[in-house]
Amino acid sequence: MTKRVIPASMMSGVLGALMLAGCSDDSGTEKKVPSKSLQVCAQFLGAENVRKAVDSVGGGEEAALARHAPGDLAAALTREAEEWSEGDLLHNAYSACRIDIPAEGGGGGGGAFVIEASVAWSVLMDDLMSEPKYAKTWRRLNDHVFVESGTGQPIMRLLVACGVPGAPSGQQAGLPLQMTVIDSGLPVEQREALLSTFARTLVDELACTDNPTVPAQLLSR
């Protein structure tokens, strides 16, 4: 079974301590302390994954935007799930993290290289995945998880059947959770790492029933 990530609400104190501990080196030279938004992005996507993605671009100083801490985003998603009824097709989409990196070649030329992770309750249900329209690009990873592959675009989506405690009966099957990572051209394995960590973070924060397992490897299985 894939190792579960520690909930971000528990990690925030650890991350903060690490960030403060790294403010200066032995020579007394000050080091850059990541912004609050970049720290939140690290909670969602994994600090090492974010560092590797930013370093691979090799551009200027990154700027991050993250309006919701993982616990707050999970609370908003929980409220939606609790209010869901069969046939409801209107769901909010949330940007969990956006990172802009000035880089040559970013976004198809000069300008900013963008990495963005977002989440929403999806209208794509399990029984739709066998239809030809979806079967071409969506692949089942296990009883609870589907990944969209083979689109040829710098985007990856994951669908997780996540039952929310206290939600109406049928919510797990009728309202799956959809996570998306889109960027300006990261290597597939980096996008995969960002998305799988993002999904596991939200699954843990939401305390999904049936304990859905999100694999670390999504496409290279």
Quick gist of this model?
By secondary structure, this protein is of the alpha+beta class. It has helices at 8-21, 36-45, 47-57, 70-82, 132-135, 171-174, 188-206, and strands at residues 63-65, 93-102, 112-121, 138-140, 145-148, 155-160, 177-183. The chain has a seven-stranded antiparallel β-sheet.
Note down, in words, how this protein is organized.
By secondary structure, this protein is an alpha+beta fold. 34% of the residues lie in helices and 19% in strands. It contains 7 helices and 7 strands. It has a 7-stranded antiparallel β-sheet. Helix 4 crosses helix 7. The chain is globular, with a radius of gyration of 18 Å. It starts with 7 loop residues before the first helix and ends in a 15-residue tail after the last helix.
Entry keywords:
221 residues, alpha+beta, seven-stranded antiparallel beta sheet, globular
- C-alpha Rg, in Å? 18 Å
Shape label: globular
What is the helix content? 25-40%
Count up the helices. 7
Mean pLDDT: 83
Q: How many strands appear in the DSSP assignment?
A: 7
* Secondary-structure element order, N to C: HHHEHEEHEEEHEH
Question: Secondary structure elements and their pairing?
Answer:
Elements: H1 8-21, H2 36-45, H3 47-57, E1 63-65, H4 70-82, E2 93-102, E3 112-121, H5 132-135, E4 138-140, E5 145-148, E6 155-160, H6 171-174, E7 177-183, H7 188-206
Antiparallel strand pairs: 1-2, 2-3, 3-7, 4-5, 5-6, 6-7
